[in-house]
Write a structure and sequence with these properties.
CATH superfamily of the largest domain in chain A: Beta-grasp domain
Strand order of the largest sheet of chain A: 2-1-5-3-4
CATH topology of the largest domain in chain B: Uridine Diphospho-n-acetylenolpyruvylglucosamine Reductase, domain 3
Order of helices and strands of chain B: EHEHEEEHHHHHHEEEEEEEEEHHH
Strand content of chain A: 15-25%
Strand content of chain B: 15-25%
Shape of chain B: globular
Order of helices and strands of chain A: EEHEEEHHHH
Radius of gyration of chain B: 19 Å
Helix content of chain A: 25-40%
Number of domains of chain B: 3
Distance between the termini of chain A: 57 Å
Radius of gyration of chain A: 17 Å
Oligomer: heterodimer
Strand order of the largest sheet of chain B: 4-5-10-6-7
Number of domains of chain A: 2
Bound molecules: flavin-adenine dinucleotide, FE2/S2 (inorganic) cluster
Number of helices of chain B: 11
Largest sheet of chain B: 5 strands, antiparallel
Structural class of chain A: alpha+beta
Number of strands of chain A: 5
Amino acid sequence: MLISLTLRVNGASETLDAPANELLIDLLRGRLNLTGTKEACEVGECGSCTVLLDGAAVRSCLLFAFDAAGKEITTIEGLAVDGRLHPLQEAFMELGAVQCGFCIPGMILAAKALLDVQPRPTLAEIKQHLAGNLCRCTGYAKIVAAVQHAARRLAAATRPEAGAAAP
Amino acid sequence: MARVREFQYLEATSVEEACAWLREYGGAKVFAGGLALTILMKQHLFEPTCLINIKTIPGLDRIDYDAATGLRIGPLARHQWIAESATIAAHYPILAEAAGHVASLPIRRMGTVGGSLSHADPATDMAAALIAAGARLHLRSSDGERTLPIEEFFLDAHETQLQPDELLTGISVAAELAGRSGAHEKLRKNATDIPIVAVSVTVALQDGVLREARIGLAAAAPTPMRCPAAEALLRGAAPTAASIAAAAAQAAREARPISDLRASADYRRKMVRVLARRALRRAVAAAGLPIPE
Ligand SMILES: Cc1cc2nc3c(=O)[nH]c(=O)nc-3n(C[C@H](O)[C@H](O)[C@H](O)COP(=O)(O)OP(=O)(O)OC[C@H]3O[C@@H](n4cnc5c(N)ncnc54)[C@H](O)[C@@H]3O)c2cc1C
Ligand code: FES
Ligand code: FES
């Protein structure tokens, strides 16, 4: 059974026919060639398949494509703008928060979901938002530090210019 | 073999339509958040021939509270909404606390509370909390509606009162049960795992004695369960270290734990006692009567 779907993926509108039994991760990786989204546990435990659905982190391994109809999806490929990396991506590189890298797209997207609504997160909030993302390599400390670093950089970039006249 | 076996897919627009389709299409399954079903389907453990999406039915995700009629939670309410609801935190804090202990944030946002009860895993946090809160469940089929206390809903692991053509349409908690302090104690192997054991309690105190306590357990029997004998020990008792210890020991005797890869039955029973004691002490303290060690 085919279902006709329209969804937005990284800002571009896609209209396609999806079999009812197609999972979102297979649509993204297999048909749209967005292989930055990784599948590890297949059962919702690890977070490596994280994508943003209307801004919130979800498990693309447990989501049928039909449930993404009409929604805005962001994958790791959608973060860089005009070839410039997102501050989270820069911070992960600068602080050495990446080892094998398999968990990192999910980590960065889970962190982005937080920073988009809470630009000045506490340590507890960062840990809560990353608790569902497992990393077998880094020990997490540098990942948390990278998210804090990116948050500071984003806050500095959006702070109103000193001395700007109040409206 | 396809990764997930093919199925027919239907989107219901009303409860009546979903009930009619459940009767019409044998082998059809209700599809809510889809977490539990999708795992089973990917693993080829359960392969329904037809899925009826109920997320397309308006209003089934509402959380409503009225001081006269109490709380009504739609089956499609997500765990995270319950965890974040100021209304629930104010009137039924046990439910907000337990919902915040479920899995990780993305799973709490995707999974529905109705799906978690209908899936009827013994290790369901919200089942224990809703038992402690005194919830009733509303089931609907084309023949009409019936209502039952949540502890009667669970028959065995993954088996409930739900007939193949029935829909869980609501969870309600009476207005008289609002305002009870509670505590949810959960033992787990990491920050996002299902409970090894969880104990949920609520207490109502009057003139320094326990008018009523309710105790719900998860992962301590083949189904989520209530502990009537432990509750009876507390009825009318002063909340002291001794009365709470006795009730916790009774809850452990009432539990019917199994051994599996998370823990042995013996360990689970011991942990029911520990967690019940902690939960009761914390609930009584939250009601304003801290008990010295
Ligand atoms: C990684 C992971 C971690 C988890 N951790 C926890 C945890 O810590 N604590 C905990 O308690 N739970 C935990 N869970 C379980 C999770 O809460 C449930 O799987 C989820 O809430 C099920 O809801 P759903 O909407 O996704 O159900 P679905 O998969 O849509 O449905 C589940 C079952 O219920 C039936 N159903 C659904 N809604 C209705 C309805 N309204 N009427 C009749 N039948 C219905 C379906 O037909 C199906 O049989 C975890 C799950 C995962 C994947
Ligand atoms: S692959 Fe989806 S959560 Fe692990
Ligand atoms: S860097 Fe290897 S799993 Fe996280």
